[in-house]
Q: What sequence folds into this?
């Protein structure tokens, strides 16, 4: 391609398309290169998007028919043992009324396509079924474009935004992002289970376009550091589970085995009973936190979204971090284009914007969270069992005096996790979150 662009964006996911919208809206000549047949064709995630981050890019997204499945009005957290489930749930009328669209579920195949259409509407050029294979550099090492797998597929641009997601051979090849360690990556699998709308409404206690998220921890990952989820869509339920790559390799467990175990758990099985499997997908999740974030810019390039390891593992937020980083990268590019200086001296403004934003602030706040999960394996093995046994003791009604029941409950817990370990966990958890 002879034409020279102001910006070439690698990847048509939330980060890349956010940047493309902002750039194209302001008149920049921008190209998005996506390896999928269409944006979203190869993408998957749990399913929750955040209205604030999207609204900063497309303020009237609801009027523009954003393919929202259900608004989230209730968030549940469940801690599962083999047989039991301890749950905490929060439902608030504000999420039905004034905070509508705070968080909502979408399917990536529909959403990414819709989002990319908005960017095209603003004037961005989208090229699909094309893989960026390398970056082009000048003699001084400045990035001046990208190479693709198409014949004569070199694309010259004043600046390149890498928004190619976590599983990026390009990042490793270019050396701009050090290859992630297995301990910093989780492998997640997800199944989409079709159910009639009224069955979902009844099972999750919602109606209309309202929905529920359920984040799940405990023994479902078979002692491995990981989490699971169940989210409601309009006519389907997303159920998924992921575990740290290092743990999966150590235990030689196949991800679909974890998913099957989750689906059979007594607290989960009734939610998906008689459902029809529609889709099965697997994807990596960057869980290394703040310390795994690479340098975000250089001469002629920037890195955004999962490619920059931006994922909040505690709150399970990634799409909003991707969109915000894409937006801030685009604002920096616009400033640099205005100055006519695309060197790292100007592009470092992106790093400064990111430091000022919730994205890096949150990752910094929770920088110890990954190591908390890594060092406290009891969270996924003995603690759920001990907690479940303790609660069973407390809730069993017979003629035993309550004081004795409390003592037995405490012994059940301590029998699974020693006192020192429990105290250490409380201390480390307090420091991490
Ligand atoms: C199981 C799972 C559940 C999740 N749940 C949630 C959730 O509920 N809420 C949430 O906010 N986040 C969630 N996340 C995280 C969220 O999906 C990511 O943080 C977000 O998608 C990152 O967006 P991105 O644009 O940076 O990368 P991606 O969404 O990965 O997009 C990258 C794009 O680049 C393209 N690409 C890659 N390489 C090339 C190349 N060489 N050439 C051309 N194109 C290329 C890909 O095809 C893709 O379209 C979840 C992730 C997983 C895996």
A:
């Amino acid at each position: 391609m002879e034409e020279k662009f102001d910006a070439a964006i690698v990847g048509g996911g939330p980060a890349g398309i956010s940047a493309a919208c902002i750039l194209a809206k302001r008149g920049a000549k921008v190209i998005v290169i996506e390896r999928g047949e269409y944006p979203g064709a190869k993408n998957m995630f749990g399913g929750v998007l955040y209205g604030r981050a999207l609204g900063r890019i497309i303020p009237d997204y609801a009027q523009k028919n954003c393919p929202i499945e259900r608004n989230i009005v209730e968030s549940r957290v469940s801690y599962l043992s083999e047989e039991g489930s301890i749950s905490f749930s929060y439902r608030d009328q504000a999420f039905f009324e004034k905070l509508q669209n705070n968080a909502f579920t979408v399917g990536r195949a529909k959403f990414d396509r819709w989002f990319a259409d908005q960017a095209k509407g603003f004037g961005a050029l989208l090229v699909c079924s094309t893989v960026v294979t390398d970056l082009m550099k000048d003699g001084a090492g400045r990035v001046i474009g990208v190479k693709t797998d198409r014949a004569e597929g070199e694309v010259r641009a004043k600046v390149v935004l890498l928004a190619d997601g976590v599983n990026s051979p390009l990042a490793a090849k270019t050396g701009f992002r050090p290859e992630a360690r297995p301990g910093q990556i989780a492998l997640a699998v997800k199944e989409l289970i079709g159910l009639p709308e009224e069955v979902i409404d009844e099972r999750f206690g919602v109606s209309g376009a309202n929905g529920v998220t359920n984040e799940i921890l405990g023994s479902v990952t078979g002692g491995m550091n990981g989490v699971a989820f169940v989210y409601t869509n309009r006519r389907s339920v997303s159920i998924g589970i992921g575990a740290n790559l290092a743990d999966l390799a150590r235990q030689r467990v196949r991800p679909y085995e974890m998913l099957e175990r989750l689906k059979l758990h007594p607290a989960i099985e009734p939610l998906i009973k008689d459902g029809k499997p529609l889709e099965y997908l697997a994807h990596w999740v960057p869980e290394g936190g703040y310390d795994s974030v690479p340098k975000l810019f250089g001469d002629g390039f920037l890195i955004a979204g999962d490619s920059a390891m931006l994922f909040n593992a505690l709150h399970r937020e990634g799409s909003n971090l991707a969109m915000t980083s894409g937006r801030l990268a685009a604002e920096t590019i616009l400033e640099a284009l205005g100055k006519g200086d695309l060197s790292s001296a100007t592009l470092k403004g992106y790093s400064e914007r990111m430091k000022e934003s919730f994205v890096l602030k949150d990752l910094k706040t929770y920088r110890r969270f990954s190591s908390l999960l890594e060092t406290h394996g009891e969270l996924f093995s003995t603690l759920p069992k001990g907690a479940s046994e303790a609660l069973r003791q407390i809730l069993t009604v017979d003629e035993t005096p309550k004081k004795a029941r409390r003592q037995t409950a405490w012994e059940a817990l301590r029998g699974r996790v020693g006192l020192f370990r429990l105290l250490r966990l409380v201390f480390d958890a307090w420091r991490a979150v």
The radius of gyration is 23 Å. The chain is about 35% helix and 25% strand.
